[in-house]
Amino acid sequence: MIEALKTAAAHSAPSASALPSNPILMIPARMASTRLPQKPLADIHGLPMIVHVMKRAQEAKIGRVVIACAESEIKTAIEAAGGEAVMTDPALPSGSDRILRALNQIDPEGRHDGVINVQGDLPTIDPALIHTAFDLLADSSVDIGTLAAIITREEEINNPNVVKAIVEIDFERQERRGRALYFTRATAPTGDGPLLHHIGLYTYRREALQRFVSAAPAELEKRERLEQLRGLALGMRIDVAVVDTVPLGVDTPEDLDAARAILKAV
Q: For residue 101, which of 113, 110, 92 has the smallest C-alpha distance?
């Protein structure tokens, strides 16, 4: 495994009573992709993409890894690779709904007290990033943790597909985490200072995930088409850790070629 994918092996989470003691990593996956048909099963050096994502999650060594899938083909691929998958209703509206439904199926007793939602299109993600997001929950006041990276590419600044995280953070003091105040597709905030590209990897306390999914979509969530705004509307605290790079999300054939090139060196 390339060096970036080894970093988690020596990583140890901070010892804090607020950090969930029995977390689970859940990867939502479904076939419905218009730009890259059957995306979870796309071949990357002999393995389906979703299997590569599972392996990155396992390399984080945080806890049990389960794929919450909408189609039997994904379940078959995961089980053929020695992984664990659970079927969920294809009609569920979001990945958050899917992982909670799967979690309640496999753990109705509530033994898993923390949930890490790893998107199913991140086959090259550095496992250390998963740790970074999880470690945000060491603060007992944090309900949800997520990631962002400073925007360095000019074309991302005004791109509505690049979600901006508005975070209370002192960059001059080189702070690496802060509380999220808003998320937007607009170019924000104004004034001098970095802009943050939000990365859609989330860690939840289980009760926070339950409350989040049980609530109706917020008005600003519907307007911006950003699910995380529901958490803010509910008064939840979302903290953001600033990391160095945005992991490659595979949405197009070109992205898939890039992922193959990265993993070819493994």
A: 92
243: left (phi over 0), alpha (psi -120 to 50) or beta: beta
Rounded to 5°, angle at Cα 261 from 85 and 152 = 95
Strands 64-69, 85-87: parallel, antiparallel or unpaired by DSSP? parallel
In this structure, the strands spanning 177-184 and 164-168 are: antiparallel
Angle, alpha carbons 232-198-50 (nearest 5°): 105
Pick the CATH number of 21-123+248-266 from 3.90.1720.10, 3.90.550.10, 3.10.310.10, 3.30.565.10: 3.90.550.10
Q: What is the pLDDT of residues 146-193, one digit of tens each?
A: 999 999 999 999 999 999 999 999 999 999 999 999 999 999 999 999
